[in-house]
Task: structure prediction
Amino acid sequence: MKKRLVGNWNGGRLRWATFFCALTAAATATSATWADGGDEQRWLRTPKSPIVERIKETRESVVSIQGEKQCEVGKRANAQYDVYNGMGTGVVVDERGYILTNYHVVKGLLKLEVVAADGERYRDVELIRNDVATDLAILKIKPKTPMKKIRMGRSELVDLAEDVWAIGNPYGYGGSVTKGIVSALGRPLEVSDALSYESVIQTDAAVNPGNSGGPLINADGEMIGLNAAVREEAENIAFAIPIDVVAAVAERMIRQSVAKMTHHGLKFRVVDAASPEYPVDGNGEDCLVVDSVEPKSPAAQAGIEPGDVLMSSNGFEVRSSLDFTCSLIGMDLTDVAELRFQRGGETKETVVAFSDLAIERGETFAARKPRRSATSSAFVSERYAEAATSDAVAEAIDENLDAADFDGSETAPTPSSFEGTKRAAQVWRVLGVEVETTSPEEYRERYPKLQAVSIGDFNFAPNGGVTVTRAVKNGLLTGGDARVQEGDLIFGFGVGDAKEGQLSVASLDNLYYIAQKKDEFARIDGGKARVYLIRGDRAYFLEIDLNR
Result:
């Protein structure tokens, strides 16, 4: 049974007969009746269903994706290349311009453009991260105003035969809406030899090339699936990835790329408003309840307890784990997150500090409550609002560096070379490297062919990295069998075989986090870890022993 992904790279030819039939059917339909009004008759329009307004609202969270792709034509010996226009769809998961779509929609594009629901076009589009196993990807644009994020439902509440609607960009017709029902649930699906799903939603809503990455929504306007594929030789058989899978993978991709320095120790569960277990502290909607708190974690130290109902984080309303992770975007070890929650009928507030960097100078939490930036929806620490870079933040924290912090076996780096930061000293002492940050822009210019990197079972979309400027012989990354060298660009670090254990490295903060967590990482997989790097123009990984 053949399926095709519905991102549309076939040149966009119209099927005129189908299009004509659709127009004919629409012309014969009516939504009004004649009513007697004494001596005259009046034309009474049928009241619109509430779903009409919900679809309009949801449509504001859907974007069209356009691009160009180079495809090989003919046999390889005499191969020629043609450029095709392609199209797909995406959904907004964070108001700051983070967009979720299918990876096949953006894979291998020469140019990429996102068109928002208001018609605004964005050509500066960044691929933040992708997950090949589920065919999902996160994009980032820089919207002029906050975007409306999509409202997500839950897979367990989806019923067979319930009405659903698909919103997308079929054949370039952005914002198109089609209706159908849930034809089947839990359907296993093999799209190709490299891509399969254990359980998807089958629908008869019209899904065409260009609908990939768009939402399948229910009568409440909630996304219950992400449209991904259709049965090639049939009509009205389409498939969507269930929302629980979509949300979990999206949360992980964001956490590992743009919120990776924010370990908090919380696990959540979503409780439905109609559930008998609905807490008395709920606000009438589905709520996010703390399921567990890791002992001695930042959240535990902040006083969060199991059963607390989380209402907001850094000023963002939260209804899911994805919402919570998005609220931490852009924060690092020097920041704190401000949480508002309900407990025992009372509204409480606390702040979670992600490391001792935020408090090592003895300042109180209250003095460093996050605030919303005047120029964006991002939150920054009040104490460090004027710091332009993470290094400037660290310099503000560690104004005086004690030479005793360095390993006496090596010459201590001068404060000028490390900007006087204790973080850099820790990285030098434990990992054995001195580094400088390579920005995403510098990375794209330096490595145009390495925007997506596959190493072993893992795939990366490097968002910059750190370039090694000096290396000591006996460091964790430079001693034993590991041979990180001067000039290497480090973009990742991994422990274990799970995707969750593979971390991006884009700054000194990331290396400091690894140095801090060394003993914890050493308890995973016997202490075996990997450093992902670029040497010359090729990507490699080096195995290191954290227990060495």
Summary: The first strand starts at residue 3 and ends at 5.
